[in-house]
Automatic annotation (TrEMBL), chains A, B:
SUPFAM superfamilies: ADC-like, Nucleoside phosphorylase/phosphoribosyltransferase catalytic domain, Nucleoside phosphorylase/phosphoribosyltransferase N-terminal domain, Pyrimidine nucleoside phosphorylase C-terminal domain. It catalyses: UMP + phosphate = alpha-D-ribose 1,5-bisphosphate + uracil; CMP + phosphate = cytosine + alpha-D-ribose 1,5-bisphosphate; AMP + phosphate = alpha-D-ribose 1,5-bisphosphate + adenine. It holds the Pfam family Glycos_trans_3N. This is AMP phosphorylase. GO terms for molecular function: 1,4-alpha-oligoglucan phosphorylase activity; AMP binding; pentosyltransferase activity. HAMAP family: AMP_phosphorylase. It comes from the Archaea. Its EC number is 2.4.2.57.
Length: 503, 503
């Protein structure tokens, strides 16, 4: 049937298409039926919603669709029911535990991106992967298919470096330092990052305090070809778009099938044209990877996958047992990162980790001799060259390169928890810190977060400050205080941890 | 947050709740977030849609929700985000291949019915069942949980009989005859049926040609206590409501995990209070169960499950290699069933199957001696007593008991396919017949369908009519003709099927 497009100010999270009751009856369409909308140039898929908010002969297109495709009010399109996509058969094949072929994986990924597969089919695919797994062939095919169904970047500067931290450790503003250090040494590093999903701040959220992070691929190409680096939000780009849709299912089920995780990360590096990739796996209690064995096995897979993609991959297993530095939350972290890069001095955990990772990249990229990378990275940081490069990045991305740490607004509703007893800090609970910071408003409220006055191993006296919660509103501060009382994120114990008496 | 209900004329297939953009921002709600709407009496769950078609402080409730719950325009409710339901952990447990506990299965079913689990979680559960299965304990718990989360019927007449055909064979109007025969013998049989999902006519679609089939549980109780039988649409009742939601996922994935299939069928029998249940498993090419071995294994499971539910179950494995009788499609089937029950004579396949099944039920219910059921069923059919009972059912359900076969309107746009050659009918393809009948408009167009002039084994001469397509519109007739030419549903061969010459 022919229909006239009506733009609807409705956001559903899905590709939904609204049809008049009368038209639906005539065309025998029911809610949730998959239909295709054909124009001269393209075919897009969506599911039926029936409502008289559109008239007969009209078809309502929601904002979700318009975020990816352009339609104009009154445009004439063809609407037809869409059958069951062929790729459902391949999802079933994986359900049966069979190995998929390259073309089958490509079909699944393409149909996910085209929205021909929806929550039901994607969830079934993700569940089947969690149960039956993927081998390295399948993971490599999946990675390339995910990259190639999205946009890809071709930067005219080689070699291209990249760094990626597997999430989980709070306060991880490390890459805000790593990228400028690496670029200051003459290497190219077009870094894309994510916003926080379950954490208190993603690298993109932190960077956004210093400069805009939403740029087109063309702008990124221009920036990186000019100054060798960027620190942008990957979500604004159409990189491996299938990933967002599988992640939705993974998050709802709180599963993270390894093959899909590998493909998700590496497809974006592949799309960015990265040739040398450093994967940082923070390891410790309360982060994604809790044991060294697990980290090693994952590292092996990253390296093997890199080989198949023609990328040289190294992995750094880093200490993730407590937050990095003293701050958690976008503005607090941006401030700490900026102070550290400006002065060349900062919390040991942050400086050590940043120069350690940057050093590996300098060696991978061939600008530092083997074993000398970290020293060189430290020199670049301390010399102020890294800060100069960060200023260039901030300027090119449209921020104020002369921003000072004291310019960064921090949530002014605060509450400080103090030690109830003297002793040693034996644990800072990553998950609890994240939960409290999020309750205080992070990452949406950029000024919200936590400042840690102490780190693990330090000695404290009764009444010493332990941590301060920052919030932008009293209401959120109060909620965060309640959470913090319940979770007790910092543990203090005497040197004698347990006393065994007369048994 | 407090909000004022606004009723929206929107049908999405899901429980969706519309929130104003400003409110969503304030409450940090995103599209697809799960929220709860609380009133003094109940809490219901739905997912967020963001749109300015409701104002700030308003919450839009869609027709899907109103089909189950009552809200009035302007009613004040409380709206709050809902966390991840506990039962997701049990879905994950099944993903890992572990046996679920009774309480865990109950939690999953309850959360499905409450819409706290949505497509993603339900699909993951169904996929996990397809891969990892359920044992008989789990199936029994699932069956009872599905029944008890819906309405249940308590009929004051014992014993209560029931009959159910596993779908798949076209033209299966058998139960329109079985139910009146059984009730005419004094037994109680409150039969609920489904509408066609993938077939050309469900029993409810066929019965609806003769009388209304949409009744409340109270009306059904009244009718069955008065005349011992009904033939109603189960979908109008709130029987095992979790089933509709799992079936949606199963259909999209075209899977049918056995444990879920058993629970789906038996939960409805359990909810209807059935004590003696006959399961008809049509077996043959192109139906759900293709081999006798498979049918036997399924039969064993039905009987075992019945034991655990306190039901006595028998199974009839019936011939399903071609359509039952000569007609496929609601009105054509209703006409054939009515003619057969009025005269006591009809197509062999229909009369044999109906009296066979009814006979087993008469023996199960103790009104016919062992081995005498079929004879008794035949006598009841031929004596006109079954017809009298059907008239009572039609009258009680609000139809015209004096309806005659010739009163039933059949699609008057017709096209007859004739034999291209002389020979024997060696095959009538069930799937092809269903596809053609559906293309002609069945089941929505009640008059659409197929009349078969021949059945398997019959001899035909060139130009003899094979089958006639009936449709209500020329357009649909044309489409069905094209389908029929492509599918060639009836195969005619000489007695010599293959000639092997000089090799």
């Amino acid at each position: 049937m022919r229909a006239k497009v009506k733009i609807l100010e409705v956001e559903t999270g899905r590709f939904m298409v609204v049809i008049n009751e009368e038209d639906a009856k005539k065309a025998k369409l029911h809610p949730e039926d998959l239909i295709k909308i054909e124009t001269a140039k393209r075919t897009i898929y969506g599911e039926v919603v029936i409502s008289n908010m559109v008239g007969p002969g009209e078809i309502g297109v929601t904002k979700d669709i318009l975020s990816t495709y352009t339609f104009s009010e009154g445009e004439i399109v063809n609407v037809a029911p869409a059958g069951t996509p062929e790729s459902v058969r391949y999802v079933k094949k994986k359900m049966k535990g069979q190995k998929l072929k390259k073309v089958e994986i490509e079909a699944i990924v393409k149909d996910i991106v085209d929205r021909k597969l929806r929550d039901i089919e994607i969830s079934s695919f993700v569940t089947s992967l969690e149960i039956n797994g993927l081998d390295m062939d399948e993971i490599a095919w999946l990675t390339v298919a995910m990259a190639e169904t999205g946009d890809m970047l071709d930067i005219d500067r080689k070699p291209i470096m990249d760094v990626h931290s597997i999430g989980g450790v709070p306060g991880n503003k490390t890459n805000i330092l790593v990228v400028p250090i690496v670029a200051a040494a003459g290497l190219t590093i077009p870094k894309t990052s994510s916003r926080a999903i379950t954490s208190a701040a993603g690298t993109a959220d932190v960077m956004e305090v210093l400069a805009p992070v939403t740029h087109s691929l063309d702008e990124i190409k221009r920036i990186v070809e000019k100054i060798g680096a960027c620190l942008v939000w990957g979500g604004a780009l159409n990189l491996a778009p299938a990933d967002d849709l599988t992640i939705k299912a993974e998050r709802a089920l709180s599963i993270d099938p390894r093959g899909l995780m590998l493909a998700s990360i590496m497809s974006k590096k592949y799309a960015m044209g990265s040739q040398y990739v450093l994967i940082d796996i923070p390891t410790g209690e309360g982060v994604k990877v809790e044991t060294i064995e697990e980290a090693r096995s994952l590292a092996k897979d990253f390296i093997e996958l890199g080989k198949r993609l023609g990328q040289y991959v190294e992995v750094a297993i880093t200490y993730g047992g407590q937050p990095i530095g003293h701050t958690v939350g976008p503005a607090l972290e941006a401030k700490e990162a900026l102070e550290t890069i400006m002065t060349g001095k900062g919390p040991g955990s942050l400086v050590e980790k940043a120069t350690g990772l940057a050093g590996i990249l300098l060696e991978m990229g061939g600008v530092a001799p083997a074993g000398m990378g970290k020293k060189m990275a430290k020199e670049i940081l301390e010399s102020g060259k890294a800060y100069e490069k960060l200023k260039e990045i901030i300027a090119e991305q449209g921020g104020d390169p002369n921003i000072k740490p004291e310019d960064i607004p921090i949530g002014d509703k605060t509450y400080t928890f103090v030690a109830q007893t003297s002793g040693y800090v034996t644990k800072i609970d990553n998950r609890a810190i994240t939960t409290i910071a999020r309750t205080a408003g992070a990452p949406e409220d950029k000024g919200a977060g936590i400042f840690l006055h102490v780190k693990v191993g330090e000695k404290v006296k009764e009444e010493d400050p332990l941590f301060t919660i920052h919030a932008e509103s009293e209401a959120r501060l109060d909620q965060a205080i309640i959470q913090a009382r319940r979770l007790e994120p910092i543990r203090i114990e005497g040197m004698v941890l347990q006393r065994i008496g007369n048994l």
